[in-house]
Write a structure and sequence with these properties.
single chain; alpha/beta; TIM Barrel; Spore Coat Polysaccharide Biosynthesis Protein SpsA, Chain A; 2 domains; 8-stranded parallel beta sheet; binds sulfopyruvate; binds magnesium ion; magnesium; isomerase; MobA-like_NTP_Trfase; Nucleotide-diphossugar_trans; nucleotidyltransferase activity
Length: 514
């Protein structure tokens, strides 16, 4: 069955065929070219490589004339062998070829010269299983049955494994006559494109051993693509089309995305399995915008703030995301996001919210405020940084923002130096809204990463706060400061490219940010 690229090769295999015809006509046409050797043989070779990579079926390549004389055939066969191609068919015409269905009495190759091409091809084959099919064009170019039989026998004697006898008549008569005289001297291959009406049983009974359905996948796709383009152009809409075309999921399946996902689990570092908790239980004070819904659901350019945040997490490979909700929780509906309730949101703080979701994280975890936005690279940096607990801290933060707002200010053992290649990490000494200006190293943006060990420490510290009766009131700065007093809490310095949404003017900034 014909295929002309990796995808069509897969489709042919799925249908159940046992072999592929890499058609010269359809590979050329799918490149937008004529079947006249306009694509160079190495360009065809590149297509064949994609096909061979896409299927386990043996591929018989339409090698046209062999792209020249015996020497070109030698090199062609060698290169096909290196790409795992099962066989090649060469036709007894002259380079550059013309498709057999065009014109009359195309010139044929000299018999002896063509036999040299066959011998050279067989002498260059990569192993004994490689197949060389010699294609006889005598019937199609009007040289008659005797010439066809004479040539076929010469090619067989020269070492061809099979003979392709081609015809452009609308009946199989000359093919059946040829087969009768051939008497199964070696396998016969046919291409019934023009005599498609002849029942296959009749052809098989006549002793033909291989039928090539030579171009029907490309022709089918032309019909489908033309119709789809026409409909979409006419309606300027997709509603009429969706049910008529293969789904995007089908594309993913055909090209093997499932295998890639399995491989990612095996080969990518743990970041792919990190989970995230978003703290979004408090209502916020944005006037009418937060009258019915929490701040995280405020619309920022057509999507809730929370959706922008979860998209950033997903882009980093984080799939399991839990959001802790309280105020207006019934207004929060996001696909693929799990929710956890903090119904005591009015009298509790961030640490209590986090404690509600602590069972949702085990190994590596991200903890993030629900009212912030940051560029993807910041999360990538936090994920890649060494350390069991890593905080994204804006080194400019303390200086840039208007005073009078509650800020998670950071005191650290090392300030941001401006040298990006610093290998000495900075650590948290204290986080609080109340740090002497000269001691401020930056502002925590509300994004933290915990390794498996870090998550265990976090769980322990939450349990301790609870035991001490401090959990209800504790905020993240207190929790992180306590962790920093016992363990290394690493500071990952950034410079801007994030924001939190506390005021109406922040909403405007967030729109610009997106
Ligand atoms: C091809 O598929 O490119 C062939 C078969 O060579 S035919 O077009 O019938 O010549
Ligand atoms: Mg061809």
């Amino acid at each position: 069955m014909e295929a002309h690229n990796g995808l069509s090769a897969k489709i042919v295999e799925e249908a159940g065929f046992r072999g592929l015809w890499a058609s010269g006509l359809t590979i050329s046409a799918s490149l937008g070219l004529r079947d006249s050797n306009e694509a160079s043989w190495t360009q065809v070779l590149d297509v064949l490589e994609f096909m061979a990579d896409s299927t386990r079926l043996p591929i018989l390549v339409d090698g046209d004339t062999g792209y020249g004389n015996f020497n070109n055939v030698r090199r062609l066969v060698k290169k096909l062998g290196q790409r795992g191609i099962a066989g090649v068919c060469i036709e007894d015409k002259l380079f550059p070829k013309t498709n057999s269905f065009i014109g009359e009495r195309q010139p044929l190759a000299d018999v002896d010269e063509f036999c040299g091409r066959i011998k050279a091809g067989k002498d260059s084959q990569p192993d004994d299983d490689f197949v060389l099919v010699a294609r006889v064009e005598a019937l199609i170019s009007g040289h008659g049955m005797d010439e066809a039989l004479h040539r076929a026998e010469a090619y067989r004697a020269a070492g061809a494994d099979a003979i392709l006898i081609h015809s452009k008549l609308s009946s199989a008569s000359e093919i059946l006559t040829f087969a009768k005289h051939w008497e199964r001297r070696c396998p016969l291959v046919i291409v019934p494109t023009m005599y498609y009406g002849t029942p296959t049983e009749v052809l098989l009974e006549a002793g033909l051993s291989n039928i090539i359905w030579a171009n029907h996948n490309l022709r089918a796709s032309i019909t489908a693509m033309r119709e789809t383009s026409r409909r979409i152009f006419e309606t300027q809409s997709l509603t009429d089309i969706e049910g008529r075309v293969a789904s995007v999921k089908d594309i993913f399946r055909l090209v093997g995305n499932a295998e890639l996902e399995a491989a990612e689990k095996r080969y990518l570092p743990a970041r792919a399995t990190a989970k995230a908790v978003i703290l979004a239980a408090t209502g916020g004070d944005l006037g009418e915008l937060t009258g019915q819904r929490p701040k995280c659901m405020v619309d920022i350019r057509g999507q809730p703030l929370l959706r922008h945040l979860t998209d950033t997490l997903s882009n980093a490979g984080i799939r399991e995301i839990s959001v802790v909700l309280g105020y207006g929780k019934e207004t929060v509906q996001l696909p693929g996001v799990q929710t956890v309730d903090n119904d005591r949101y009015a009298e509790t703080g961030e640490a209590y919210s986090l404690s509600r979701a602590i069972d949702r994280i085990d190994g590596e975890a991200i903890v993030v405020y629900g009212d912030i936005l940051f560029r993807d690279y910041i999360l990538d940096g936090v994920m890649a940084a060494q350390g069991d607990i890593v905080l994204a801290v804006d080194a400019l933060g303390a200086k840039m923002k208007p005073p009078g707002r509650i800020r998670d200010l950071v005191r650290a053992d090392l300030r941001f130096s401006g040298r990006y290649l610093d290998d000495e990490p900075a650590h948290l000494i204290e986080m609080s809204s109340d740090i002497a200006p000269e001691d401020i190293a930056g502002e925590w943006i509300g994004l933290a990463r915990f390794s498996q060990q870090g998550t265990a420490w976090l769980r322990e510290e939450i349990a301790l706060l609870e035991k001490e009766g401090l959990l209800d009131d504790a905020d993240m700065p207190l929790l992180l400061s306590r962790l920093g007093a016992k363990h290394h809490v690493v500071i990952h310095y950034i410079l801007a490219h994030w924001l939190d949404v506390d005021t109406l003017s922040d909403v405007g900034d967030a729109m610009n940010f997106i």
